[in-house]
Amino acid sequence: MSKMVPVPGRGIVPERDIDKSPILECIDLGIKFGGLAAVDNFNLTIGRTEIAGLIGPNGAGKTTVFNLLTKVYQPTRGTILLDGVDTNSMTTAQVNRSGIARTFQNIRLFTALSVEDNVKVAMNNQMHYNMWSGVFRLPGYWKEEKVAHDRAMELLSFFGMQDLASARAGSLPYGAQRRLEIVRALATNPSLLLLDEPAAGMNPSETADLMEHIRMIRDTFHIAIMLIEHDMSLVMNVCEGICVLNFGHVIAKGTPAEIQANPTVIEAYLGKKKEA
Ligand SMILES: Nc1ncnc2c1ncn2[C@@H]1O[C@H](COP(=O)(O)OP(=O)(O)OP(=O)(O)O)[C@@H](O)[C@H]1O
């Protein structure tokens, strides 16, 4: 884990990312549903290869932040800069092509398709053969198919899932389905990977394996990862910077050690958790 250092205007940044511009900047981001400000005055900067955590009690606004970043929701106010580019006018698909991929709290796979096809469908935004090549199975189609197959197998191997390539996605055990979701997100070639409760429903050994893979993703693909997670041991072990939300507001930002020692956080979140 790289040392976190304070940089004026950017908060704390992993030392290795200091000379690189941030991958994500949220400036005064907010959204209202009716009268409720689900997220308000949200400011956060994420370094190019940072593993960042977004935590907070149930209903704090964490998933809403992911929905704003991926343009499922249009912000009521504020700006999102992805690699320095304002995403205001972008659709969800455009944001994905520009570099943000996500997984969901509830698994969303094509359960009737094979594991490999699930990955290939995710790659679709990068396939270049035209319709006629596909319909008539022309050489361009087969060439792209080979590239897609090789890439899918490479990504599946990363998670040790290559032998499951032809299995039906819906037949996989729960933990493997969660890993496949991450593979599908990686297949879109993101520069920022958003993971919404990746350890939910996993047993302790699967969670430990996931932690290892989150670090490996960062080190292999050199991308940033932002994760929402209720499993505090995972968050405190893998995240370099942590942002804490409560009732839609950022109540703390800092390193795992700073967050664990922050009285406001303990009162709002960790303290409550311990009492439960
Ligand atoms: N589409 C919507 N319409 C109205 N209210 C919404 C909508 N989406 C979210 N909210 C509200 O915004 C608040 C934040 O919800 P959100 O799902 O972002 O919380 P969360 O921190 O992800 O919670 P959890 O940990 O339980 O998943 C909640 O009060 C929720 O009811």
From TrEMBL:
Name of this protein: ABC transporter ATP-binding protein
CDD domains: ABC_Mj1267_LivG_branched (cd03219)
Keywords for the protein's UniProt record, in alphabetical order: ATP-binding, Nucleotide-binding, Transport
GO terms for MF: ATP binding
Positions of the ABC transporter domain: 24-272
The keyword ATP-binding is assigned to this record: yes
Alphabetized PROSITE patterns for the sequence: ABC_TRANSPORTER_2
Domain of life of the organism encoding this protein: Bacteria
Organism: Dysosmobacter acutus
